[in-house]
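Reviewer 2 asked us to include a model.

Predict the structure of this chain.
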Amino acid sequence: MSYRINNSLTNVMECNSNITLNVSEADDYISTNSYADVDELFITKIFPIILVFGVLNNGIFLFVLYRVHRMRTTLNALLASLAISDILFLILAVGEKTLRFSSSTFANDVFPFSAKSYTILQSFIELTFQASLIAITTVAYERYNVVCHPTLQRESPTRKVGLNIQTRCIKQRHLVKLLCFIWGTGLFFSILFLPPNIRYCHICIEWPPGGNYTDYPTTILEQNITAGFQVYYNISQGIPFIVAFFLNSYFYFKLIRVLKIHTQSVCKEHTDIVTRRRQRKQRITHMLLINSAVYFVCLAPYMLTCFLGGIVGMWNSETASKILLENNTIFTNLSRTFMYLNSAVNSWLYTTFSVVYRTAYVEALCFKKAVNHDNRISELRSI
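Predicted model (structure tokens):
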């Protein structure tokens, strides 16, 4: 049979477990399948910097939640889940790119991974990415309930005398359900994306005689994704993103309207305590809105390109390749950069746009004592 690796025709013999490839135009094959200089710049320099920044940034946020007890709210628990998924996603995604670059000359080679280990790795990457997407939507939903439907948050009639054991148990059960939903749905999507990631092709290359090709690998393990599975994967990637975007837009649109009404009512009441409390709620909500906006803006280039390419690919694969910009390494690496930055900057946005989080960071990192009890309770309720 004939097998097209690049624009030139190469003869291939297919066996039960591998494909033997005789390369006559070696230079053309090398230039087509090797990493570009742009790939080297991003994989060896830019991506590792984002990885270190993201792990430190999210790790510090988790440390702050551990140190400052008043920050242990349902909202912050969901943000902690988001931080954990971001850390794991960065380590797995950037680590996979770095290991493959350092182990093989060719971008289509998944070495040093085996077929099984690479499939498992891709499943974990999808799990952490989808968990992050679901977590950001769950945060918007929970904030929507707190501000727009505050009566739903009154789990116990003993709320007036404090957070007793019954109330805490109800809150914990509610939080456990939310976390199970986030990671359970992420697991579901990771399984949904398995079919395109289980087909592999083992290519054995016979290089032309001479010493010019001794440094190149003689075997390559690459993913063998058919056109149909590629369409399925691209559309499946885009649908959760688009649904999450519209859900977040709806929740925050409702939140902004309700907060505007609250602001007008506060102006009539002239109550300092009520004013301060609602102002804190507004600042927290605005911070979450900005965080959500940055999240979807960073993901949009990669996710929308995949989705549109998948839709067009159902009718015309050549046009889909142009939409996906498969040969444009600059766009591909830039879209990945924004996707990785999205996972790295979430925690930084909290401290930039919220005085509550800045105060907690100072207390945790400078090992200062917490503010007085009244302020702690006020901030806890405002979050």
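The two ends are 64 Å apart (CA to CA). The first strand starts at residue 2 and ends at 3. We have added this to the supplementary material.
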